[in-house]
Amino acid sequence: MRPELVAYGLGALVVVGWWVRFIVRREEELFFRRLLLLAVGAKTLGTVLRYQVMADLYARGDFRRYLTNGSAIADELRSGQWPEEASQLGTPFMDFLSGVAFVFLPNTLMAGFAFFSLLSFIGAYLFFLAFRIAVTGGELKRYAVFIFFTPTMLFWPSSLGKESWLVFTLGFAAYGAARVLKRLRGGYVLTLIGILAMFAVRPHMGALFALAFVGAYALRFRDQEIKKSAVAWLTGLMIVGLGAGLVATNFGDELPRDESVDGTVTDQIFAETERRTTTGGASFDSRPVRGPGDLGHAMLTVPFRPFPWEGHNLQAVVAGLEGLILLLIVLFSLPRLAALPTRVLKQPYVALAAAYSLGFIVAFSNVGNFGILTRQRAQLIPLLLVLVCLPPLGARLRQPRRFTSPLVDGAPGAATTPATGPLIYAPTTARPAPTARSSSVGDQPPVSSGGALDSPDAGALRDGPLVPAHDREGT
């Protein structure tokens, strides 16, 4: 083994180890500390497995193109030249991203796999933070297990390819959107960067997320604090809507289309996609969504198929088992999904997840290849799983405990949170009033007969949890 590869490997281990230690130490709960460490180990195994499968079984593939073209572009960048791929969209821009990575990495397939796998793990971590910020009362532990250990997330976005980049940028945009929807600083910039980075590689994914974000942003007006500044909300909605409209109206020009088909641009794009994907051993007869009657078939096919009995090799059978398990999870989560209409109206991030998931299912309903669907599913699962981790219908929402993530505002133990508005004191148990107290404590608030302190600020940290005022009645 070449000495420079050993040096690169040791340097990468130091950097990644420092970053993992940094994020783990910011977690207060032991459960999440252990979970993150296990997630890093699982992702490492998934990357090694992905590398072995791709390197041994596939003599050709996009990942080899990215290695070859990326190495050449890296040489151009080192010599001070700016490659033309940097101004193009789609696969050429992915060549450029590979070249940027290989400026700092050795020109080897394993190095490319490791780097882009790390990006996808960062994306999954940002999805985790977004859920924690924006889904009040959500099952965070359940979501964390799903987002970090679902086989699709461990395997498919763990290589030198578009899937890894898209999971990273989707997580980046989702985290920014969560900050915007909870009125935290920096959200607009993060969301814009994430959407543009998505658009550069897959324009339709950037357009889809942008439109879902606009819909979720519009629902912010239900927030009482937002109603007090309706002009600012309307201005923001116009800006966000204009940006999303520009993205959505221009992405079609970047997609291949079958101009021999009579109809709209969308019909031509669907026809060309169907023609390109209904080939190979994993092909099947797709059924694009043309109306409400086609939606049920697409909602079964895109997220869950192929089923195990539809697999043509071991890899497809394993993917089928995962799809079947995911379907069972959704079925057992019907009480949570029953709460979806209410949560969509009250929690804009849930609306974003629902709109994006529905749009993804419609957009990929014309794909007629199980192999392609299985790979692309990594871009759906993170937001689809939000819907099965909601609290059941009728559950009482309580503000989650504060945490010390470096990416979330606020110090631990603060008595208010910018994410949910004012907090009120909600005692869990009544305490008898003391029979006497020292005369030296004259500034303390009086104690009511029910045992709760009349001043919420004075006794909140001792007597019970802090609950958002708008969640007091379980709404």
Can you give the helix content as a percent range? 55-70%
Distance between the termini: 61 Å
Oligomer: single chain
Strand content: under 5%
Radius of gyration: 25 Å
Main beta sheet, described?
A: 2 strands, antiparallel
Going by helix content, strand content and strand pairing, the class is: mainly alpha
Q: How many strand segments?
A: 2
- Rounded mean pLDDT is 76
Figure out the total of helices: 21
Biggest sheet: strand arrangement: 1-2
Q: Are there runs of 5+ residues with pLDDT below 50, and where?
A: 256-272, 408-431, 436-475
In the residues, how many domains can be counted?
2
Question: Which outline best applies?
Answer: globular
Order of helices and strands: HHHHHHHHHHHHHHHHHHHHEHE
Condensed summary:
With 475 residues, the protein is mostly helical.
Features:
475 residues, mainly alpha, two-stranded antiparallel sheet, 21 helices, 2 strands, 61% helix, 1% strand, disordered C terminus
What does this structure look like?
With 475 residues, the chain is an all-alpha fold. The chain has two domains: 3-60 and 108-387, no CATH class; 422-475, no CATH class. Helix content is 61%, strand content 1%. It has helices at 3-25, 30-57, 62-78, 91-104, 109-134, 140-149, 151-155, 162-181, 187-201, 203-218, 224-227, 230-250, 265-277, 295-304, 314-332, 334-337, 340-346, 348-363, 370-376, 381-387, 456-463; strands at residues 423-425, 466-468. The model is unreliable at 256-272, 408-431 and 436-475 (pLDDT under 50).
